[in-house]
What we know:
62% helix, alpha+beta, four-stranded mixed β-sheet, 4 strands
Amino acid sequence: MSSSRASAQARKPSPAAVSQADQPAQRVIKKYPNRRLYDTHTSNYITLAQVRQLVMDHVPFVVREAKSGEELTRSILLQIILEEEASGAPMFSETVLANIIRFYGNAMQGFMGSYLEKNIQAFMEMQAKLAEQSQGVTPEMWSQFLHMQSPMMQGIMGNYLEQSKSLFLQMQEQMGRQTEQMLDVFRLRR
């Protein structure tokens, strides 16, 4: 092999390096014992409202405890949800929150998380389609649209409900398979 071809191959990035380069860099936010959050990307302390804005802007980030490096992203996201629920109009009713709590420790806990995640994703896709279709719509047109039962809206909601039903049926089938596997393992099925 010639030295120029060997040096060209040496400069060529590996497939793993290429896939990492395609992904946006994940911001690291450090949480200090005094409850302050430090954005290592901007070298500034930030507020919970600014972390919320990162979420809204689809900026990938991770929150870590400054000393131990323990990941705290979920707890920070839950804190943001708690603040959002406390101010303005809450998204979750007391009944919904109580039902979510009841799933913790239940055999359905793992399925429910997946079910909610897939449903929210389907709803987000439906919302994106609606936003795409509504570009160029004037306020007067929106007013007319909201005052009548639009076949388009019925179609979108029908698709969403169908996806939700499908996800629920998939969850039931998966539970049935896992139950059968457990019964086989414990030799309880004949």
